[in-house]
Amino acid sequence: MAMLVPSQILPQTGETRRLLVKWVIAFLVPVLVFTLVWSGEAMLNAALLAIFFPANFSVSTLAAGLFMLLFYGIILGLVGYLVAADSGRQGMIDLWISMFFFTVVPILLIYITANLFVGLAASVVVWVIYYYGRRLVQLFLSSPSLPPLPSLTVLDTEMRATLTTRARLGSFWFALLFSLVWLLADLLFYFTGQYGQASLLFLIWIVLRTVLLPVAGWLLGGVGGQIAVRHALQANGNGGNGDRSDTPVSTRRLRLLSATRAREEARDLVPNDLPLRSTGARNFYIWLLVALLLFYPMIDPFLFGAGTNARLDNYANAGYYVILALGLNIVVGFAGLLDLGYVAFFVIGAYTWAMVGSPQLTVLTGIRINPEIWPWLFWPMLIVAALIAALWGVLLGAPTLRLRGDYLAIVTLGFGEIIPIVVQNLDKYTNGTNGLTGIYSPAFFGVRWNVSTSEPYYYLILVLIAIVLLANVRLRDSRIGRAWVAMREDEIAAASSGINLTRTKLLAFAAGAFFSGIAGAYYAAKLSTVASGNFSFSDSVIYLAMVVLGGLGSIPGVVVGALVVYAVNVLVLPQLDALGNDPTSIIYPIYTHILQVIPNFSFSNIRNLIFGIILVVLMIFRPEGLIPSTRRRRELHRAEFEGAEITSLDTPPGAPGFESEIHVE
Amino acid sequence: MTAEYEQTPQPARQPLLELKQVTKHFGGLAAVQDLDLVVYPQEIVSIIGPNGAGKTTVFNLITGIYQPTSGEILFDGQPLTKLAPHKVVERGISRTFQNIRLFNNMTVLENVLVGEHLSLKASILDAVFRPPWVKQEEEAARRRAIELLSFFGQHLVDRQDEYVINLSYADRRRVEIARALASRPKLLLLDEPTAGMNEAETMEAVHYIRRLRDELHLTILLIEHKLMVTMGISDRIAVLDYGRKIAEGLPDEIRRDERVITAYLGTAATSGRQTWQVTFRRQPEGEASNHHE
Amino acid sequence: MDFLTKTIRLIIEGLVTGSIYSLVALGYTMVYGIIELINFAHGDIFMMGTLVTLLLVTNVFHLSNASAMPLGNLLLMLVVSFLASTVICALLGVLIERVAYRPLRNAPRLAPLISAIGVSLALEDTAKAIIGPSAVTTPPLIPLVNYSWGPILLHNTDIIVLIVAVLLMVGLQWLVTSTRIGRAMRAVAQDREAAALMGVNVDQVIAFTFLVGAGIAGAGGFFFLLWSNDTSFNIGFELGLFAFTAAVLGGIGNLVGAMLGGLAIGLIRSLMALWPETPPFGLPHGGVSWQDAAVFAILILILVFRPTGLLGQQLAEKV
Ligand SMILES: Nc1ncnc2c1ncn2[C@@H]1O[C@H](COP(=O)(O)OP(=O)(O)OP(=O)(O)O)[C@@H](O)[C@H]1O
Ligand SMILES: [Mg+2]
Predict the structure, then answer these.
(1) Which ligand has the nearest atom to the CA of C319?
(2) Which end of chain A is less packed: N or C, by CB atoms within 10 Å?
(3) Within a domain: A435
(4) What are the residues whose beta carbons fall under 8 Å from the beta carbon of C11, sequence distance 6 or more?
(5) CB neighbours of B158 closer than 8 A, spacing ≥ 6?
(6) What is the ipTM of this complex?
(7) What is the mean pLDDT of residues B127-133?
(8) Closest approach atom of ligand 1 to CA B50
(9) Residues in chain A with pLDDT < 50?
(10) What's the pLDDT tens digit per position in C292-307?
(11) What is the pLDDT of residue C129?
(12) Which of B140, B169, B184 is the last residue of a domain?
């Protein structure tokens, strides 16, 4: 084989060879497992059949095939990136073990449990055990952990070219080995005669594939390498492209930064000790995730078999929690205003569409709308509902402006209690406890919406989340976002920097409520019914738990927090009974033991007990949340940093204990 | 200190800041009493006085954090009374704090950008939709922030992405001044800008405070304990004790003023050169080490 | 019942429930005063107090008819269940502090809050696992005696609860103002670090605060059951909400304020029943369904005009 390819394809130096082996193997295992054990190949084959045999044609199988193409493409790029970005200091075996635990384990667990959330939950448990085991081993061996700063190599043009070539090679070899193994597996299949009618076509396909994959690897690996080199360390200054925000940091500047800060910066640089965690690699993960989310409804049947609709329904519900958590994060995370009544705005949003988008409108105002057009009103009303909620955010925020800390919390809590009561008691308009039914779903060209198909809602919520996320990120990075954080940090200093505290607080309330209103309108449309009894203080509490658990002020953290809380509360815990009754599951023996002691035991009765314990445990082990914003993390470990960094001086008079907190002069 | 900085600017000009009979009571305590003070454009005026004399309170009254019990404060001929702190900033007064109030969990650059809040125009909708002019505005703000940092040398520019919590004490004071400058003030109030600095850093601070006036044409009102600083850079000095102004004049006059000497240095004070190297502050225990000038 | 009788009866009921809110509010206020934590689990500790009493009374003493019980047994039952609910709840409070809050003493402010919410959920479900999801009723714990003078109708249970509440509050006030540990508590509340430097064992003082607060809530649970004869797994949550509101209304950190706040909320809630079913001027109907809204509306109004509650004093905020 080696004779056939130009000599350039062979790794030149020992160092490069080592890198190639390291990364190629690290990725080969999970990708092979996904392709051959789980559904990767099934999706591709289905798509092929759909192309060549019109009888099998369906858009969704084609889409699944398209997803697989994207998947391999991104992986090839990623491999290239990693080979180029690696400083080579992390051990080979170490990496393989990590990769095994963080990719192969979840893939297998999800495959075995045939349930995304149960599989992921089980993986998290495995990860925690692995993490602690690893720590123990490290302590035992007292192996020195890598120094915080990466090898600060400055890359010259030649070096850059070498890295790009290296990336090409990495991706090429990965693709080559992968396609060979795949070919072998398929040939076995072929000669055992598993593929009847399609056999010749099949043969062509597997041969073609084996040839094409390495070529794609060569090309895409080059792209990955280019991306890696873009983040390379520069000799000095901001270089030519001073106007870019992601300008590479100069060596000099990096050396000036404190260790913690440098570690944060170093993640973005190339070469780098932990390339898997670098910003560049993160972009690849994001692309993978985006592809997965976009194609999910089509690939779900391949992954988990029947029941796609119900699963999509769950995800479509989880989605509005994400929006709620993002909105609340503005108020609590950015602006630091503890809001215990956030559910109020959700109610307002929900009832806005419920009253306009249901027959109640006719009852109240006598207006009749053509039922063809009525559902279309959802779109403008989505904005209107959000605006109304925002208006209420301002109205309810106004009385709290003079309040501090927990007095604010209790007033918001009060509003959270009052609004549902008001809604319930104004039964002339809202139909009281019985609620409103027959709320219209949205309408859109070429989409059939009804309560029993979840796919449109899945996409709708995806779009809404994308918009809300974008808005959140932009707000965070804007003048307003900085004002929020400044206000959270120190109101007096913020005011003395020209920030209008009243306005800024009200803006935070309004923005938070706005997103809550969107979530509310979506909720009403999706459920097609609202009832005042469904909203209570405990909902506000759950939203808060999502935000704090995920990481206050951290946008990715909050998204994860919302999904985790939703998954634990709605997807995992309710499944425990079913799992307990299933003799093949892990918890079956535990369950039967408990049953012997407590005869009519059921997990559903102690759902909140388990959930509560999870909350406590998570908070104790990760008080800063799952994915803390870098800011929070520092707040938490401030003492540590203080000790580490203060260089020349004395105890600052501002230090704790020097003067009491409030007596700032 | 060199002669050129000891010249008093012509008092005939229209005053930039004028305090008329300003009084502030906290319950029974008169923190500031019947204070008259005038600051002319491009002057450096110092307020000195022992602990608790009411110096910081004067700053808080000017910046709208406290409202005076009686009296009037005029800035550019307009009354400042009843203005909220951010309105005062809008008028062109910004300040630093005795106990440095930076946003500790923001980076150096972000801190300065917060100071630019007023000069940026993006509303919440602009922030979300981010039209090109907002992008340009942000870029310009960043450039300006870096420019302001470079006022203190390349050193802070290099550390623009550092969290202020990781900075040395002297650097934090500099960042705080940069943040104050970011709102484009006419009058800068500095509350003990060299407290906690060592001698070299203090000298440097003296130097850049002068440059603030000479290069940026700012007017500066300064609270300072270290005579080395006040005597060196002030055009005029006002002395407060128990909320009252007990003396005002040129540094040399204050240096020779009997009331000041007896009030602050007690009988131990001789007119020897040595004494002037000491601070006016009656030092609390733990802090003494910060002030070995 | 004529209007006057009804009103007086409502006032009495308001005072009684109000004093129970007060008892629970004391725990909120003490804990908040000392570690600035809204202890969401506190209401559920109160619920645990009712639960302990309930279990003892029905499963150990097999109460069916209090007036048929020998006086000795009856007294024994009352004393044992009172002590048991107080002590068990006090210990529970300490345990919760140790497990769920102490590790978070230096964490960001909201972490202990979420932890408290977790504890609250866990306690509720524990109770649900024990007594089931619906409300449970006991026979009267003591033979019911009614006193009436003119329009005034009083039960002996009303009198007991009011007297005990007053006694407990006076005792607590004494504890906090006049004892060594009380001084230590106030010192820690003012400035934890300074107190530690002065040789106060901060951990112990905080644990003691939880012990006392939870103990009072447990006692409150006992008397609540004595008075109302029913409980359920989720009364703690709602009652806790009102008790916390009471603490804020009175000025959080202030014991007397918590008592006043509790009484005020009790009165507001019960007097809302006077709202006519068909009010004039097209006003919304149904007073009882508005009672919670009324509580919060009044709370908000008061806070808008007195941002630190009725008796809370403004911290001298120096800038
Ligand atoms: N918000 C406040 N409430 C009550 N008293 C206050 C307040 N702010 C300041 N004081 C008191 O007013 C007096 C003057 O305080 P101020 O901070 O102005 O002194 P200072 O001259 O700045 O002293 P130092 O040199 O220590 O900074 C002091 O006695 C102080 O305790
Ligand atoms: Mg001062």
Answers:
(1) 1
(2) N
(3) yes
(4) C267, C270, C271
(5) A252, A253, A256
(6) 0.90
(7) 94
(8) 25
(9) 1-7, 236-248, 632-665
(10) 888 888 888 888 888 7
(11) 85
(12) B184
A319 and A344 housed in the same domain: yes
Domain count of the fold of chain A = 3
Q: Which amino acid is at B122?
A: A
The strands making up B219-223's β-sheet, listed across from edge to edge, are: B93-95, B187-191, B219-223, B44-48, B236-241, B244-249
C247 to C22, C30, C38, C43, C235: CA distances (angstroms):
8, 9, 10, 12, 18
In this structure, are A248 and A364 located in the same domain?
Answer: no
Q: Do residues B135 and B262 share a domain?
A: no
Please indicate, yes or no, whether residues B131 and B82 belong to a single structural domain of this protein. Answer: no
End-to-end Cα spacing for chain A: 77
- Cross-chain residue pair A501–B86, CB shorter than 8 Å: yes
Let me know whether A265 and A408 are in one domain.
no
Tokens 């307990």 sit at which residue?
A580
Domain that holds residue B172: 102-184
Q: Whose CA is closest to atom 22 on ligand 1?
A: B56
Query: In this structure, which residue's CA is closest to atom 8 in ligand 1?
Result: C318
Please compute the mean of the pLDDT values over residues C133-157 and round it to a whole number: 88
Q: Is the separation of the CB atoms in A426 and C284 below 8 Å?
A: yes
Distance CA B205, CA B173 (A): 9
Residue A314 inside a domain? The answer is: yes
A407 → closest Cβ in C40, C248, C297:
C248
Structure confidence at residue A86 (pLDDT): 84
Number of folded domains that form chain C: 1
Nearest CA residue ID for atom 29, ligand 1? B52
What Å distances lie between residue C279 and A383, A512, C272, C276, CA to CA? 37, 37, 13, 5
pTM attached to this predicted model: 0.88
Residues A268 and A392 in one domain: no
Is A76 part of any domain? yes
End residue of a domain, out of B184, B211, B236: B184
For residue C315, being part of any structural domain is answered with no
Q: For residue A489, tell me if it sits in a domain.
A: yes
Query: Between chains, do C118 and A418 touch, taking CB under 8 Å as contact?
Result: no
Helices (H), A305-342: 308-328
Q: β-pairing, B29-39 with B17-26?
A: antiparallel
User: In terms of residue numbers, what domain contains A79?
Assistant: 3-89+155-304
Residue B49 in contact with ligand 1 by CB distance below 6 A:
yes
| SS3 label, residue A597 | helix
Domain identity same for B77 and B141: no
Provide, as residue numbers in chain A, all residues whose Cβ is less than 8 Å from the Cβ of B200: none
Report the candidate in C208, C158, C175 with the shortest Cα–Cα distance to residue C20.
C158
Q: Is B55 in the pocket of ligand 1 (CB under 6 A)?
A: yes
In a domain, C218, yes or no: yes
Prior bond of A54 cis (ω within 30°): no
